[in-house]
Write a structure and sequence with these properties.
By secondary structure, chain A is of the alpha/beta class. Helices cover 28% and strands 19% of the residues of chain A. In chain A, α8 (184-198) runs parallel beside α10 (245-257). Chains A, B, C, D: It is an enzyme of class 1 (oxidoreductase).
């Protein structure tokens, strides 16, 4: 047998470490050392994003879960709430008010929207936090109030929060204490559109987005509308004008454009558990071709491990990223001259939630960004 | 018990007879009399549209199947090809060359695209024909040649063929001998857009359509790409620029506009057996509001049995029309001022194929249009 | 065109009227006349079995719904609860206490188990009632109390109630005022086993049943366990020892055997909306062969419209009966000598619930048993 | 931050190394050293089991794929055949006749049944081989000939081949050069039944098995019967008497029993991609209780990483093992005295195929058995 090649001795970070852009970087806080353990609390562990954090961390070499909270399931074993994870050695669920954070270095906050602001306000200051709710995603607290129907409850934290779209805001995330992890739709939309807008390759008017989501996006709450019998074998649009991810997307695109962008956004719920496809219909700037869009996305994401521009006319399928942290995308010519169609796919629970959250905490801890995230998609 | 109310004595035509627009009409050929039997041939009966014709006709009071062809299954019983229909008393499958048309009044032609032109050319002249293939849908045989890669093989029949979008071309269909039954995407798109374009309520530029189809649209051919394992739990776009339904839609919209219309059309295949949703992003004409669109569609389809504009902000779901001949639609305001979003849903095998075919033959035979079609959707 | 053949003038009763066994029969009460309207109340119309009654009756020539109740949805239109049925002209939902039964001839009672006994007790005496709950299925009220945890609340009605397994108890049902419509599992199991037991062709010991149900069997209640995300792409057994359909099956088999039968029964929930398969592993009586079982089932069900023994080694598929009132079944040789395997399939909402209920009320009204039930299965 | 605990420095082998039974063992051939690379060939890489090997090895620290064959796809990139794995750096596909084995240490043979015997005969002698086909599973070549319709083509290799049911035959597998990887049904059935039979806790007569499989078990071949449209939303039994996994199961049970065992075996195909459930109805030996069965399985599998006996009355769900190498099982009391019901679930592509294959090659190479296999199930 041959000797193992250089760079393969560490399982989970092979291949991408070399190309990772973070090497030139010195974080403000001393990074966790290689091999050192980071003690993790998962708040709101009884929902799907919480369970997904647990699944991903099962193979993370340095993150270890020491606290798990779930108010309505307090006292239960995690394996009774999520039997697919019974083999994991985990702390029992406690109510958040009973959680002991003295043994914790970092927090994944998987609580419902609205409740999170006050809870995070109450956490010890030294903790690093990735919040998977929408509570800190909108920089403008007036916009927050408008979309969520109540005043923001932690405006000072909002100032501090960094928006966690990893590939776009990597450097800010590294230095952050509190990261607002992006929504699933916003992740799948901004990854292709932000660089194209920054490069002024597409027009800001008439950006039309038809997006399709799997049902895990709706959470684990018991609702008639999400029963198997109501969802299987069908599709429907919802929240056509007023989906709460709209201001988040418009914030990101407007910043990239340095001018206000208003999008058309139609989300659809389809009969799949995981997966998200965003189809974006855009007008190109004068003189710009589809090939220009393609080349710009190619150079933007060339070194990235988790964002992949497909070759040629290959169409991204949601099935091809399930269970992984990948975003696959591609650009297509439209029949209408001057227009292009961009399609991106992610697993809404991974790159659209818990996977990107782990990616962000890796960065915040000075660890390789892909640590614990090298799951290949599960297909079929 | 009370006496049965007037209008309820005939099962399958209740309710709609009164409102049906066909009463003022005198067809050129004498219509089949009430109670008289129409003998039907189904050509290409081993595919899904053929089976669906059989299912629908099981309760048609005047159509009776006397001939069924399926070249590769010749000699077999239909019930061995489609075991869900074993209870039906049907003729055995024969090769098309062995079919005896002396006992036939009308034909549903469910053959693959391309083969149909010559076969229909060879049928006895007195037969009424509804062709479910794409072979006679494009009026311009040059356009046919361009999209299908070979010269049209029956240009004289193409002249005669009437495009069978029932609600739009009802009068022409009544007098037709040969009807080209519309494709599924074109049906779902033209039903809302043709009246809006005719009324000049929407602009002709930048009509963007994102459509989603169930897998029966791909037929029963054994292809790796359509295996359960490849399709379940996912979505992907396909034929992004070049789907063959594009020229059919553009033909219909251009005629309505009396000027050439070019659409953006992105079809998606999703993990459901039946169902189709078309989402249409349009720019309204200056001064027009979403309410104007709604009112126009409302008055257009008010008397129709099979086209239903939903109330208020109700969103059409594909699940709510499965198994039925209905098209449900609605109109929504876009976030971008001056734009509207229109959503329509059909069962691609019924209103998008075999149901509309039966509806058309009913008309051609002078029968109530809804005869044999009053299946309510199967939900859940 | 030829003249319509004799026997085809009435759509919905063709073919089977001639072979229907009910012709020799004189019901105690004068049957409803042909063409006369039967006014129907549907109690508990907001669940799946209620909606299915509405779907089936849409094409019933003599049943018309005049009252619909749904306590929690009182005041709503039925079409807002079940949008797939918006085209139906139906009375609004009322609370059961506000229902006016003066305009009602017969009742489908689709209420939850347990609440039904007192409600039916309070209904006017002249109404004919088909109860789809389990409340009157167990003849022995002690057994009821044991399985349902409370004393029976209408023991005098229990005496009167006739068990509605149509093909087995047709004559009793014709004369009944109150029919206890069978459960879905019991229907799929008793149809094959009761005749085999009566004929003493199979042993009474070690009857092992592995059954699989679609999720509509669990109703429309919002439960975490029945979310799309929890159910899709999987199977699990449940209620392994204590499913409440067990005493109902054992009652039927014991009566057929004229001796107590104890079964092994393992139900499974699988990721499909409709459908039920029961696989029965039985020991044959000494000297009996699989062919004997087959022949006996064949002669038992030869004239039946809704129970079909498949030919040869054809295996019943749940997909082949969806949306229809059929039960398909077949018998197979086991590898273990002396044993046989019997498989039956039904649509749990039709033959397993609402379809059989309509079939029973047809009988009770002296109408052709298949009236309004001639839906062919919806496949694919 | 705390120092990382002992035993956590290596990602993929944590927890279970300590309890792994292989430490007392000295293999005949020197094991591969920690960190040394094993070069792997995957033969027949264009099927689902081949793709699954690639997915699993993506995180294997010591196995590296250097050769991939797929005759009909020779010359293509693996990522064009399985786009979900495009991020993997893999050799191009070659025809098997062109494969260069000089750079290979071990082979996963994922070829179709029947072709494998001659191909393996032609491979270099020094290679270690795990064959995922059925070609070497039956020790008795006469039985092979009977079930597969042709004489065995490599009887001398059959003598050498070790049956790869890891937890049952671990020691033999460690010393093997050629391992016949078990079938999916046989894995799910033998894991619970072999120890119970060995301990004489269940009777050998009347072992009745009703098993349910996902559709990946049928492979990637383009067959009408396996189209999405034919499979979705349904279940059917198949191969009721003659499934080819029967002799494999009977071989294993007979060896455990030291006497011939004949089973009743009914496989079902259900609408899910991955997953398998086997339900086993057994008669207990006189005086034995369900608790005895439970305790014996508990002690048998106590130290095992991949076989888990659930607590209490928890029912194994197929969804809870998808994507992982786990087998979950439990034992239940039957209503019929003296009988028990045993349910086991696996992912048919992992523990039922490629996962167990990796587990076996780990053993054959002297590596920790769980290396590269610590994927937690993907739920939902």
């Amino acid at each position: 047998m041959s000797t193992l090649k250089v760079g393969r001795s560490s399982v989970c970070v092979r291949a991408s470490i070399a190309s990772s852009p973070q090497k030139q970087y010195s974080p403000k806080t001393p990074a966790v050392k290689s091999g050192e353990e980071v003690r993790i609390a998962v708040l709101g562990a009884s929902g799907y994003t919480g369970a997904e954090i647990v699944r991903l961390l099962a193979n993370h070499p340095q993150f270890r879960i020491t606290v798990m909270t779930a108010d309505r399931k307090a006292g239960e074993q995690f394996g009774s709430v999520f039997p697919h994870l019974i083999t994991q050695d985990l702390p029992n669920l406690v109510a958040i008010k009973d959680a002991d954070f003295s043994d914790v270095d970092a927090v994944f906050c998987c609580l419902p929207h609205g409740t999170t602001q006050e809870i995070i306000k109450g956490l010890p200051q030294q903790l690093k936090i990735v919040d998977l709710s929408a509570d800190f995603r909108l920089r403008d607290i007036n916009e927050y109030a408008e979309w969520y129907g109540h005043a923001h409850r932690a405006p000072e934290l909002q100032e501090e929060a960094v928006y966690g779209l990893t590939e776009v805001l990597r450097d800010e995330i590294r230095n952050a204490r509190l990261v607002a992890n992006p929504g699933c739709y916003p992740t799948s939309i901004q990854l292709p559109l932000v660089p194209l807008i920054k490069a002024k390759l597409i027009k800001l008017s008439n950006i039309i987005i038809d997006a399709k989501s799997g049902v895990t996006g709706a959470g684990r709450g018991a609702k008639e509308a999400n029963l198997y019998t109501e969802i299987a074998e069908g599709i429907h649009a919802y929240g056509i004008k007023g989906h709460r991810h709209v201001p988040e997307v418009e914030q990101g695109l407007s910043e990239a454009a340095e001018s206000k962008v208003t999008i058309s956004f139609t989300p659809n719920l389809i009969c799949m558990k995981r997966g998200m496809q965003s189809t974006m219909f855009v007008e190109m700037a004068p003189g710009v071709t589809v090939s220009d869009l393609y080349q710009h996305l190619k150079s933007t994401y060339e070194g990235e491990e988790f964002v992949k521009l497909l070759n040629g006319s290959n169409v991204p399928h949601t099935r091809h990223v399930v269970g992984s942290n990948y975003c696959f995308m591609n650009v297509f010519e439209d029949r209408i001259p001057g227009r292009a169609i961009i399609i991106s796919v992610i697993d809404n629970l991974v790159k659209g939630a818990s996977g990107q959250a782990v990616q962000n905490l890796n960065l915040m801890m000075g660890l390789p960004e892909n640590m614990g995230l090298q799951y290949q998609p599960l297909f079929p």
